[in-house]
Amino acid sequence: MHDPSLQPARPNRHLGSWAWIAATAAACLLAFGYVGGWLDPGRLTPTRIINQFQADAGTFPGYRRNHAKGVCVTGYFQGSAQAQPYSSAQVFAPGRTPVVGRFALPGGNPYAPDSSVPIRSMALRFALANGQQWRTGMNSMPVFPVNTPQGFYAQLQAQQPDPKTGKPDPAKVAAFIAAHPETAAFRQWVKSAKPSASYATETYQGLDAFVFVGADGVRHPVRWRTVPEATDAGSDAIKAGDPDYLAADLAQRLSQGPLRWRLLVTLAEPGDPTNDATKAWPDDRRTIDAGTLVIEHTEPQESGPCRDINYDPLVLPAGIEASDDPLLPARSAAYATSYLRRTSEEAHLPGAARPPAEARP
Is the pLDDT at 291 greater than 60, yes or no? Predict the structure, then answer.
């Protein structure tokens, strides 16, 4: 006779499901805690990096925490097909890809004079026909100052103004330089670097390495840069003492016709560092002309199409992948934190819109 008491107990499936959900939730909570730094307050997090940007430049609600001052631009990229053997990304095929970009200055102050820094930046979002996107940010300097997120954070700390003088503490800057010899190449360049009179005449370097993946699956470490067709120093729009001459110069140039840059991609050779943005690759490396960037229009960043774009360098199409450069995930995470802050601030402004520039602090 069947005796139910002798049967092994059946597991409670619902209880098991709830246990799995609870375990998953706990794992997620731990993950968020780790990313947020709650479990390790001393660990470097995106929040600490963005907070340091604010400590250095001040807080300007609704603006990016870095590259705060800029203008929107629109145009297209004309692929040359020369990069297709190395990358399957659709952007490199012959034809036009729409682009929304942004020219800007480094730093968190949207009212900084254009002459205050010798570096200009170009950010681009390529909207591929297959629905994928490629986003990239470049700077007009040959190398990055540091090669790790920790080094970058230390640099920001050293640059924080002393409340008594309004300038960085020379002793802290000297201590940072002594602790980071990898900054030597950048410091050598910046000694003779001067603020340019135009966004249009700058070469913009990608600095971080990426990986092109061809249709055959072969991987090619690369760096890229945009090289301008325009070479003249500046336009008549520049006026002595004008703190915003870059936007005026760009508008004047575009009123006369589109501006163009060639997208040049450098292929690494064995031994070329892909994880160190402070080291330039030798000049004799093979370079391919991937196509032409054409900028046709500019608009103010307050109302232009670039306003709500996060130029995350890890938004990549199939055929382009991140390298082992540790700066890339750090940039991506910090950009996301900055984006969430500024868009949240915009949402709380009257009418969910930014006030006119003259009404902002």
Answer: yes
Q: How confident is the model at residue 126 (pLDDT cuts 50, 70, 90)?
A: very high
| CA gap 313, 123 in Å, rounded | 9
Q: Catalytic: 67?
A: yes
Q: Are strands 219-228 and 320-322 parallel, antiparallel or unpaired?
A: unpaired
The one-character DSSP state at 168 is B
Residue with token string 């920790």: 150
Largest CA distance in the chain: 104
Percentage of residues of the chain with pLDDT beyond 90: 80
Cβ atoms within 10 Å of 132's Cβ, excluding its own: 17
In this predicted structure, the answer to whether residue 260 has a pLDDT above a threshold of 50 is yes
Phi, psi of 87 (to 5 degrees): -140, 135
Range in 63-72, 202-211, 308-317, 350-359 with the lowest mean pLDDT: 350-359
In one-letter notation, the amino acid at residue 66 is: N
Report whether CATH 3.40.50.1980 matches the domain 70-325: no
Measured from the Cβ of residue 326, the count of other Cβ atoms closer than 10 Å reads: 18
Contact yes or no for 295/74 (Cβ under 8 A): yes
Catalytic residue among 2, 14, 67, 348: 67
pLDDT bin (cut points 50, 70, 90) of residue 232 is confident
Inter-residue contact 299 to 72 (CB < 8 Å): yes
Please state the φ and ψ torsions of residue 192, each to the nearest 5 degrees.
-110, 0
b/e per residue, 215-231, with b = 16+ CB within 10 A?
eeeeebbbbbbbbbeee
Side-chain-facing half-sphere of 312: CA atoms under 13 Å: 19
Phi, psi of 6 (to 5 degrees): -90, -10
Q: Is residue 39 scored above 80 in pLDDT?
A: no
Check pLDDT > 50 for residue 28.
no
Using CA atoms, how far apart are residues 79 and 89, in angstroms rounded to an integer?
11
